[in-house]
Amino acid sequence: MLRYVGYLLMVLAVLAMAGTVVVCLIGGLQEEFRTPGAVRLVAFDEAATTKTRVLRVGAQLQNLDFGKPIDLSYMVARYDDGWCEGNYTNSLGVIRWVRRGPLPAGLHRYTASFPETHSRVDVRANATVWVVPAGVPALWVDAAALGPEPQAGGPAATVPSAQAMRPARDALKTLAGGRQVVYLVAGSADDYAEVRERLREAGATPGPLIWLRQGNEGERLRLLRDGWPEVDGAVVAAPVLAEAIAKLKVRIFRLPRAADDVPQEPPKTGAVRSTGEGN
């Protein structure tokens, strides 16, 4: 009797293994079907200090042919130092990877892609984790604040031209003295990719570009400050960012437009100890 029970258990185990293989194959085929044609992957920068112990980097995967995010896709993040982790995209096509333990000061590049076994080896994107020594203050800068005043009813994230950026860009170089500029982009991943390229072309003060997904701006800013609490102030254009930043007790400033004066100098102390409402 026990022998027959053993045979039955063996059969059940084989069937379970076969079922797992079928599920994996079907899942793999489904993932392949979701990623034909024009697929775009945008990887996002991150900012931290040498004391930050939890680093969260992320990306967004979209099918451009259908104009939809691609969910439930397994993707990996690989740092240049060899660290690697995998995770799945959510319903918005967004994926997050969590790395624990501090990194040394410097620029740490990582690459987001499908696993090496995936057929779409062409889908990959690079971004950078900017790590500064603990104690260096940050200056948050809404990327939209570098151009002309946004039009009423316009998109949350505007992408000013290099020429339109020039007055605010030059003032920002003075304002950023002794601080690390951290750019904020509130809008879609499309906005993010375009803003990053435009800032590079315009010769703006170097700094990481943090994506703030629409509707999640406040939570993302809170996580950013948790990892880097020394913030001297914020330069803001978008009202939604001004409201979220004011709730974090970070003082708000404005860069000059083409005909304005030199910007007000933010306090030398960290914004955790600096209060004030946006102006």
Sketch the major β-sheet: 5 strands, mixed
The order of strands across the largest sheet is 2-9-8-5-6
Global shape? globular
How many helices? 5
List unreliable stretches of 5+ residues.
Answer: 19-30, 149-157, 257-263, 267-279
CATH class call of the largest domain: Alpha Beta
Query: How big a fraction of the residues is strand?
Result: 25-35%
Q: How is this fold's topology laid out?
A:
Blueprint lengths: L1 H33 L4 E6 L1 E4 L4 E10 L4 E2 L4 E6 L4 E5 L5 E7 L5 E8 L10 E9 L5 E5 L19 H14 L4 E8 L1 H14 L6 E5 L3 H11 L3 E5 L3 H9 L4 E2 L26
Parallel strand pairs: 2-9, 10-11, 10-13, 11-12, 13-14
Antiparallel strand pairs: 1-3, 3-4, 3-7, 5-6, 5-8, 8-9
Helix pairs in contact: 2-3
Provide an overview of this structure.
The chain is an alpha/beta fold and 279 residues long. The protein folds into two domains: 39-128, Sandwich (Immunoglobulin-like), CATH 2.60.40.10; 138-253, Rossmann fold. It has five helices and 14 strands. Strand 10 (138-142), helix 2 (162-175) and strand 11 form a beta-alpha-beta unit. Helix 2 (162-175) packs across helix 3. The longest helix is centred in the N-terminal third of the chain and has 33 residues, at 2-34. 36% of the residues are buried.
